[in-house]
Every structure is written in C-alpha cells, then in structure tokens.
Amino acid sequence: MLESSKFLVKEKVKFLASHATYEIYDGETERRIGTAEEEVSGFVRAMRWIVSKQLMPAHVEVRESPDDALVFTVSRGWYLFRSRVEIRDAQGVLVGYLKSKLFSFGGGFLVYDDKDKQFADVKGNLFGFKYRVLTPDGGFEMGKVSKQWGGIAKELFTSADTYLITVHEDLDEQPIAKMLVLAAALAVDMIFKSEKKGGLGALDG
C-alpha cells in the first residue's frame, strides 16, 4: 500500500451504522489496495447511540489488500478539549501522533513523530474539504487532501465521502513519513471532521 503516492478513499454507505468503513484505491491505477475501518468495542458501539460520537474513543485499522495485513492504526481516547491521536505500526510501535489545535475556524492539526518533534502542520479550508500537509515552517507541501465528486445520489442522500490523498514524490523512499501523511489525511475525515461538527474544541487552520 505505501508504495502508492495517490490514494482514493471511498466511504462505504452503511445506513444506521455505528462505525465507518472506507475502501482505499491507488489513485493512479484505481486498483483497490486496502481498507480503513473503525474497530469499536460492544460497549462503545452501544454508547454511540446515546452519547455523541465526537466524545467517544476512536480506533481505525488500515489494512492492505488482498491479504488483509495490518499496515498501521490510528487511535484516539476519550475526547475533551483537545485530541491526541496516536499512529502505530503493525507491531503496535508508536510512529507518531496528531494534536488538534484550539480556537480557530479553518480546520487543521499538528503532526509529531515518535520523538515528540513536530513533523507537519495540517491546514484546512473552512469553505471546502481541502487540506494541505506542510512542513512545520510551511515551506514544503508533503501532501494534500481534496474531496471528490461522488455522484448526485450519493451527495444528496448520504453523508458518505470520497476524497483523494496525494503524497509528494519526495517521500516515496520514506515509508514512515508517508505513513504519517496518510494517517493524518485519514484522520481529517474519520476523526477530526466529526469533532468539528459537534466536539467541544474547534480545530485550527
């Protein structure tokens, strides 16, 4: 999966579902290369019907096709005013983490590596699902996320999303860096976007 540089992510439409599932395709060949799915306990699944999902823990497993091998996980604990979202490899080793920013309107968050050094700044667009993954100084764009048109029926009658993640070619030989960019992009939709809809803290841009 991490050999690709463009990832087309399509949310599977599930009515009355308490967790999200996404299919991941190579953005160049349109070949299905993996999945991203929330894994929630029975307790959390039941609580989501009575407590806002934005306040509950989230755990996403990203798996590679066709053997369904685990590539990495993205996890957040109980959400209060500011999230810490951890990224771990297939062996459970911490690769890095994400932190939402406070008191802003654009949408975005910070990415850190496993040594607590800032790796990236994710900046959002208030008026559209567009995000840029920048180096901390803002001088280099490592990746970007943009929403794709899903068709009239899907857009009007469901909340399912389709979006494209593009990783800069300079990261082709850096699998950990690419994992952090991909995880950050997935977290925009699967974790941070839902927080912005109803959480207690706003995301910065």
CATH architecture: Beta Barrel
| CATH class wording | Mainly Beta
Total tally of structural domains: 1
Helix segment count?
3
Series of H and E elements:
EEEHEEEEEEEEHEH
Low-confidence residue ranges: 151-159, 195-205
Overall geometry comes to globular
Give the number of DSSP strands: 12
Radius of gyration: 16 Å
Please provide a written account of the structure.
With 205 residues, the protein is of the alpha+beta class. It has one domain: Porin (Beta Barrel), CATH 2.40.160. The protein is 18% helix and 40% strand. It has 3 helices and 12 strands; from the N terminus they run E-E-E-H-E-E-E-E-E-E-E-E-H-E-H. It has helices at 42-47, 152-157, 175-198; strands at residues 6-11, 21-26, 32-38, 58-64, 69-76, 84-89, 94-100, 108-113, 118-125, 128-134, 141-147, 162-167. Strands 1-2-3-4-5-6-7-8-9-10-11-12 form a 12-stranded antiparallel barrel. Strand 6 and strand 7 (94-100) form a beta hairpin. The radius of gyration is 16 Å and the shape is globular. It starts with 5 loop residues before the first strand and ends in a 7-residue tail after the last helix. Residues 151-159 and 195-205 have low confidence and may be disordered.
